[in-house]
Amino acid sequence: MATPATEPAPPNPNPVSDDPPPPQTEEEAPESPPPASTTSIESTPSGDKESDNDSQSVSSASSTPAAVAAAGGGAERHFPAAKDLLHISFNQDYGCFAAGTKSGFRIYNCDPFREIFRRDLAAEGDSGGGGGIGVVEMLFRCNILALVGGGDNPHYPPNKVMIWDDHQSRCIGELSFRSPVRGVCLRRDRIIVVLENKIFVYNFSDLKLVHQIETAPNPKGLCAVSQQPGSIVLVCPGAQKGQVRVEHYGARKTKFINAHASRVACFALSMDGRLIATASTKGTLVRIFNAAEGNLLQEVRRGADRAEIYSLAFSNNLQYLAVSSDKGTIHVFNLKINVGSTANDKPLPAPDPEVPHMSPPLSFIKGVLPKYFHSEWSVAQFRLHEGEHYIVAFGHEKNTVAVVGMDGSFYRCQFDPVNGGEMLQLECYSFLKPSDQP
Is the pTM here over 0.85, yes or no? Predict the structure, then answer.
């Protein structure tokens, strides 16, 4: 692991470029301003009352904050069509999802489904641009978000990360770079900014740079970070094709995993940082690794034909893995992993003995047919429109899955872990249509 900067970059309003500024002496470093307060957006309706009030917030105030009032109601609201969507993402616990559009951003609750709030940035026009938001990342359910401009008419420059405090309805900090921002990851104590070939890690409390990582070309902005308090685990593309890099900040070590022969197209990290799931550009196999030692624990098969994997997600109990791809089918796999085992242990069956081993027809002809017929297959599937971009997450209710699409659709479905097969659709909404608004 590369050694963190001996003297991190100062907090904003001084922007940070691709090449961090030279170290400052203690006398030169500006005094950190007091932290901004954070409040909860909303408690979880399903009974989880976590509000994230204790989370740290950005303390560097923007010199030109853009105050945006809450969007009005009725006919004055702008309801973009699905073609106006620029970005969708779940928050860290899968309880909410965010949508960036050509006119601003919106936040939705998953269960029960409803819009929590929206910001119509195009209506304000105070930045001299449009309202396009190409990246919007939540910090659990607190009022702090990370925004990056996007689309043909971005509200903010695509090379800046704006820290938005929705309690104050303004930006309270920014990070500036020399190239477009490809992605942002948040946790309560860190902000991770992903560029095409670099990743920067900042303290959330004062926006000081603490680490930077060189990566292979990463146009998708692939990056994942653990979310449990304490030791931080970060996963990003490695320097070589098919490789992922794992930073264990608590142990101060770096692990490289040669996951695939082809380029890595998608990966996911469990919330506790113990498991990594990876898929290549071929999109036929998904591999699950031990994050600490890098050993392969399990391999599952999505299908035989090439596909683009859009998202991977672990269930909270680490018993299931969900996969979405351009084939329009959501797959749920049973993980046969004893996460309490040591790194040298072989993969063990999942703790639930009722979950069957799902295999395709003719798999009993062992040694006669190709490896395709001996692969571990999904325990449940949910079929949607082929070619659409969907992302998937596990719901707070047992054995449920939430799906959000770039076509403006939201689905919640339930799978049977014993009998498997097709999932049961529980809800379906077109979240960008006026008729679906609260």
Answer: no
